[in-house]
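Minutes, project huddle
Topic: does the predicted pose make sense with zinc ion bound?
PN asked that the exact inputs be recorded in the minutes so nobody has to dig through chat later. Recorded below.
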Amino acid sequence: MSEDYQYKDRDVKKDPAREFRFGEGRISGVLSLTLGILSLLAVFAYLYPSYLTTTDLRKVYDASALQTVLKYGMYFSLLFGCLTLVLNKARYKYFGLAGIGLTLIGFALGGYKIPVGAVEPKELSLGVDWLILAFLGSTAIFMILEKLFPKYPDQAIMRPEWDVDLFYFTFNHLAISAILIFGNYHATHFDWALSPSFQETIQSIPISLQVILIILSADFVLYWEHRAFHETKWLWPVHAVHHSIEHIDWLAGSRGHFIQVFSERAMVMIPLYLLGADEAALNIYVVFAALQAILIHTNLSIPFGPLKYIFVTPQFHHWHHSSEKPAIDTNYSAHLVIFDKLFGTYHLPGKHWPAEYGTTKRLPRTVVGQLLHPFFPNKTTDIRNDK
Ligand SMILES: [Zn+2]
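Predicted holo structure (tokens), as shared on screen:
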């Protein structure tokens, strides 16, 4: 069927109302407000680390060194805020005022000089530190890459529904400890399948091979879990929330119903728990998986060469998000394309990219509507056309 299909190019038009232009005060206003919000969140995390930081993440960063980052974040928020006021253009001055106001509250609460002491670990906490670091890291890597090598140069950073996706990004990061607790608890249901001798064998092989084994076994589980979400009638409305994105970039991949976020983590924990690989191999996998999950949604046209026939790349995963007929229910893999090849769901038509993204039956456009959608799938669906 796909040989006869007429592939079209995606038409992305410039949207002047959403663009950033120098001299308008919008860039400095948004930067001031963003840094003001992040700084105030960081100040609260320093004040209440037991409740607002992540036990596992604290082991990998130096809280004292990050105070320097906070210091510059606060000063730059003030600087950009003042620049916005000097430019004094329309409503953007309120962004600058808000940025300055939030930063001054941060200073009043102790700012970057709050003493860093021992932290009483709490099992359940909010991942404010994970949210801030992931946001700074993702924007530094992926937003810059998207500006340097965009697939669609005219797609704005603040494209339609960026705020909806930012909500999901924030929720997924704040809830990290609850997601991990649930995932670890779920894995213990498979204690009966644990084999110490099998785990010893796994640990005796080189780390690089352990990483490959983890990727293959995790991807096998993720493939079938993902396929079940697509091909089971009562599961699809949950996963459809992730597919409701119609403008894809690094942030769009965060959109997903919390039921899916929790169940995905619980499923992938099973092979990781049973393999019992070295911590070094697990850490490499976690970083690889986290970066790849963002990368495959980016608005990026880096040529991956032959690697695109091994790894899941943006072009491959963008096809998974297409509402065009030949692409529906294809490209389920998260890491490697091998399982789509093996199980007959592979779709990568040469150099073509999708012209249309989203679901064939349009979902609500608000977070509340999307969260309710799985419970009332017929009431909250706006029928655009049939599959
Ligand atoms: Zn999917």
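Observations noted during the meeting:
- Residues 382-387 have pLDDT under 50 and may be disordered.
- Residues 226, 230, 239, 243, 320 surround zinc ion (CB under 6 Å).
No decisions taken; revisit at the next huddle.
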